[in-house]
Write a structure and sequence with these properties.
The chain is of the alpha+beta class and 226 residues long. The protein has helices spanning 3-25, 203-225; strands at residues 29-34, 38-44, 49-53, 58-62, 67-69, 73-76, 80-84, 90-106, 112-121, 124-132, 134-141, 144-152, 156-161, 164-174, 181-198. It has one domain (27-212). Strand 11 and strand 12 (144-152) form a beta hairpin. The chain is elongated and about 65 Å long. It holds the Pfam family PEP-CTERM.
Length: 226
């Protein structure tokens, strides 16, 4: 083997090792947070988000900057999977918030942002998420405006479930023109507020009542026989 071919082989091996290492860093992760009545997991990738657990519920921080310059774009978000900690179904009230999504715009541009997604309980779609983010302008000077988008949805009420998915979440950006932008910063976050209550299985008291009825019926038969 010539020296040139040997060098090419070494370079190819180094590139393959670097690629394999990058792939290893890009493996999926499963974030799990336990609350008194439920457990939540967030499958996804660490490359763009950092999972967080607040008192109100789970969420993700945007660890890498995302932005839309000039043209509209869609940005997919992680899904949230919620299950009861005990073998009882849950009822829940869920709200979704987005914080600190920054915009800058010029001229007559009218930047917009919205959040879409689905709520799926036990494999059945029970609600659609489609909310425009609220726009707050902080700076307005000589045709330049800057500020942030935020969102706090109304409560979604789910009466009974054993597994809840908040899935298909995506942010929709539209900066308005080529000189405008929408982008995330270190404090940009999407979080859930989840309030849950356990729902007793209706079968349990019914079975108990039926069992007591059978016992009473047998006692009456025995009394008559005696």
């Amino acid at each position: 083997m010539s020296a040139r071919h040997a060098r090419r082989l070494v370079v190819a091996l180094l590139l393959s090792i670097a690629w394999a290492s990058a792939q290893a860093d890009d493996t999926s992760w499963s974030f799990r947070a336990e609350y008194p009545d439920y457990v939540v997991s967030v499958p996804g990738h660490f490359l763009s988000y950092v999972p967080i657990a607040t008192e109100r519920g789970p969420g993700v921080l945007f660890s890498h900057e995302i932005q839309a310059n000039g043209e509209p774009r869609l940005h997919p978000l992680p899904s949230f999977e919620v299950s009861p900690r005990r073998d009882l179904p849950l009822a829940a009230a869920v709200a979704i918030s987005v914080d600190d999504l920054v915009f800058s715009e010029t001229g007559n541009a009218l930047s917009r942002a919205s959040l879409q997604g689905w709520l799926v309980a036990d494999g059945r779609v029970i609600g659609a998420i489609d909310h425009a983010l609220t726009k707050t302008t902080v700076i307005s000077n000589a045709g330049l405006r800057a500020g942030f988008f935020s969102l706090e949805t109304d409560l979604f009420l789910i009466q009974r479930f054993r597994h809840l998915s908040i899935t298909g979440l995506q942010l929709s950006f539209d900066p308005g023109n080529d000189a405008s932008a929408i982008f995330s910063i270190d404090s940009t976050a999407l979080t859930l507020s989840i309030h849950v209550a356990e729902v007793p299985e209706p079968a349990s008291p019914l079975l108990l009542a039926a069992g007591l009825g059978v016992i009473g019926w047998r006692r009456r038969l025995l009394d008559r026989a005696a």
